[in-house]
Amino acid sequence: MNGPIERVAIVGAGLIGLGWAVVFSRAGYQVTVTDSDPAQLDAFGERARAELELCAAEAGAGEGVDVEGSLERIACEADLAAAVGDADYVQECVPELIDLKREVFKTLDEFTRPDAILASSASALPPDEIFEQVSPESRARCLVAHPTNPPHIVPLVELVGGSATPPDLIEAARAFLAAVGQTPIVVLKPVYGFVLNRIQLALLREAVSLAREGVASVADIDRAVSEGLGLRWALLGPYGVEATNADGVRDDLEKFGDYTAAVWRELSVVNDPISEADIQLAVDGVAELWGDFSNEELAERRNRFVLRVRALKAAMAESTPPVS
User: Fold this and answer.
1) For residue 324, what pLDDT is reported?
2) Are 146 and 183 in a shared domain?
3) Domain that holds residue 52
4) Between the N and C ends of the chain, which has fewer C-beta atoms within 10 Å?
5) Count of other CB atoms within 10 angstroms of residue 25
6) pLDDT (tens digit, 9 = 90+) per residue, 197-216?
């Protein structure tokens, strides 16, 4: 980039593309959305309005959200070349299929300005595989910016460079995404699944194993997180939790090191695929917990809850005096 980012393009108008459009437009940026499916573009304005109104309705979390102004900054364009041609920053949001992402980035290389930043929303695929068909000189403007789903509700973004991505591009993307209200972290080594999904899927693997073995019901396994671990995790990560469980993280890890190692030895190492039996256990357990809600209603309930937690965290950060 030779100048500030002013115009953003989003390739893919699904759930992730919608969330990114809300993120950028409510931060004041002009956003052009493109998709190969005309129906997605036809419905995009209505879907964006619903999400912006949700953000604006939540006290604290929606403070300063200009719904009408944000909508005016979003344009839909069916022609890919026209949508991305004058963009300073392009966020790819197509499905997690390597051949499709490669083809999209090859096309973006052709249609975008040579100084435009090209970011993928890939959640696991290695950057160098995604950018394989991009010209060598353009790979230096490509990176992965993997959002948490949905990005306008949960702010974490993982930044992952390819072998040709320079540190200053990572820093430019980090500064830009922080400025629009996200929380970027840098993945220093591009392992499959990055950081967030590796942690998330490690937990899911153990949950599936516990359910398979009949250790606890699916509903109670979920409660162990939502009414236990998750309440602390909304403020502190695993290292922060360990630090507050004892007299600092060193004290905790030294004191409980043998116990931790013993539990680790008992954890699931099963790597076989999810089975139909696993799926049915999950379906029945979720129905037990949340059967009174449709999936859409449950997702909206989750989004409202997360926005309120974020507002509470922001208020606490402003009102709590620093520890001396």
Assistant:
1) 41
2) yes
3) 7-187
4) C
5) 27
6) 999 999 999 999 999 999 99
